[in-house]
Amino acid sequence: MMRYISIFFLSLLAISNVRCVAQMASSNQGISNKPGIITGADQTEKYLPYLKGKRIGLVANQSSMIDKKSSVDSLVSLGIKIVKVFGPEHGFRGNASNGAVVSDEKDAKTGIPIISLYGKNEKPTKEQLADIDLMVFDIQDVGCRYYTNINTLEYVMEACAENNKELLILDRPNPNGYVIDGPVMTDDKFKSAIGIHYTPMTHGMTIGEFAQYLNGEGYLKKQCKINIIKVANYNHDMPYLLPIYPSPNLNTQQAVMLFPSLCMYEGTAINEGRGTYMPFTILGAPALEGKYSFSYKPISIRGMSERPNHKDAVCYGLDLRNYDINKLRKSRQINLSWLIELYNAYPDKANFFTPGRAGRDVSAFDLRIGTDQLRKQIIAGMSEADIRKSWEPGLQKFKAIRAKYLLYPD
To answer: Which residues are CB-contacts of 169 (< 8 A; sequence separation ≥ 6)?
Structure first.
């Protein structure tokens, strides 16, 4: 009986993956990939000879694909010896909820051990790297400070440097590579699991470029030896439709593009679509009843959001599923107007921003933004223009730093 139950749930997962891939393809609003873009992973001729005969550790998840097949399956079929796979937040298969602890396991198909970097340890240990000759990093990122793949990248680089292991990075386009925006984090007190780098909210770099930034800006005690297989025929301003969703709650292209603007609401009384099958494309709260006609009810969804904000309560607010994301591309900015609008509409302003954890003098919102200034500016009623003006000195300084590490033109 358990065998049939397992098959049933695996079938549901497969159907869900197909549905989400279809959603990614259908929500592009006229955006299409430029001909000729080839990810680093798909340029096997450039790195397969280097992998041959080595014991490989692979940092990967469901977005790690070679020629439309799992990187693990593809590399094994090509005669590469993968001794361990390391999975980031959401797990190797990408089906764990946000923030959920992920356990170590074995890949059912290949028998390769899967080591979680979002469980007992975030950084590979000396013991875990002992039988590895070369580490390979192949994960799709979305270009935001609060998307934890860049944290994993730093921890992997740090471990490789400490244990004299080289890291090969199979680079992928950044779907939000056109936007460098938001306040720059400058104070250690705003560091957390959702932000450890002194960047704006969106940094406009690929994983390969970010690795060079980490090496060059002294984030590591010892520089990591890295080798990057670049994306072919790519620049930061090019649209890029993701063939596979990068995490359970970024299940459409619309969500990927809106994520930089909507993730900040996790530090507020506003639900950002978690607990629905439309995450990061809708915004709402029960307290906004009567002020907005659009409504929805967040529920517990296993593998996506088990405890969403306002679980089982009807929320009222903004439906952004058909918002023209080309407006974001043209502005090259995070949308700030929705935050100002919803704060002004919210009846209990004293409880709009979520308090921080006990013992910390920063709010949950501050940790996502990387500073307490935006929260204070919103409360003070500053205009969007004046808020953006206050970001400019930090953004200009960061852009000058960023320019040193770019592999692709803007």
So the answer is: 40, 136, 137, 138, 207, 208, 211, 226, 227, 228, 229
